[in-house]
Amino acid sequence: MPEVDTRDSVDRSKRFQAELPADAAKRDPAWRLLEQYAGIPADEVEAHLHRVRDQAWQIFPYGCIGRWRFLDLYIATLPQYGELIARTQRGAVLLDCACCFGQALRQLAVDGAPAQNLVGLDLRREFVDLGYELFRDRGTFAARFVVGDMLDSGDARVGVLDGAVDVVHAASFFHLFGWADQVAIGARMVRFFRKGITDAVVLGRQIGSAVEPLDPEEHEKRGLGRYHHNQKSMQRLWDEIGRRTGTAWAVEAELATALEEDSNGEVAERTTIRFVVRQRAS
């Protein structure tokens, strides 16, 4: 998870929600994971979550931490979820970019993905360590974690993953950056895939755009920073990534818009985009 929030003009207080989310659909899967996998007694879950979340917030104030979005184990609701588990069971390696606490990896493992075929990548070692604390599985969780910066092309820590990955999960990641950095990140992801692979896939969810995004050059000219996508612009992004890497990609994506209340009680529409990017013949 990159340290980019200082570039964001959003009031920090609006990114922090003191109380745990009330939506049972979002809470229940996380509670089950913490109780059944981590072995945390039901009456201790809330205090445990507050303790870990507040430590993470002091490390860096990401909105997904302040607003408890790391508790939304949406990955298990994806139509491709069964495919992800089946592929890892056949030996495929799944990489979770900007994995934060590694919550998606734990859910995958509980549902049958071999932990030794799961890898998490994040910028901050502190978040990986807090993941072990959150799930109380240091020494028992066999997934591998790598700490490094995907925007640093010379970061040898990240380079250990080159040519070793079959599937990339990237949630709440691309949307933190402008167009040029998103292209660079996508090109870096392409280097992760095994040489000769024909079924590489990148999938995830992030903030989307309910209106037609500006042309990238115009967006940059206006100094707007983060670039949010609809289906058309997401395909354009991966066309550019493909051009730079000598690969080709087909994007499937869908937008969803819902009302969301922030910590100050203000309600606004929030648009998200779910995407699946599959390799196709060049």
From TrEMBL:
- Pfam families from the xrefs? Methyltransf_25
The UniProt record lists the Methyltransferase domain at 95-196
Give the record's keywords alphabetically.
Answer: S-adenosyl-L-methionine, Transferase
Pathway where it operates = Secondary metabolite biosynthesis
The record's GO molecular-function terms, alphabetically, read:
transferase activity
Record's keyword annotation contains S-adenosyl-L-methionine: yes
Record-linked InterPro entries: Meroterpenoid_MTases, Methyltransf_25, SAM-dependent_MTases_sf
Q: Which domain of life is it from?
A: Eukaryota
Q: Does the keyword Transferase apply?
A: yes
Concerning its family, UniProt says: Belongs to the class I-like SAM-binding methyltransferase superfamily.
Name of the molecule in the record: Methyltransferase domain-containing protein
Give the organism, scientific name.
Lasiosphaeria miniovina
Q: What is the lineage of its organism?
A: Eukaryota, Fungi, Dikarya, Ascomycota, Pezizomycotina
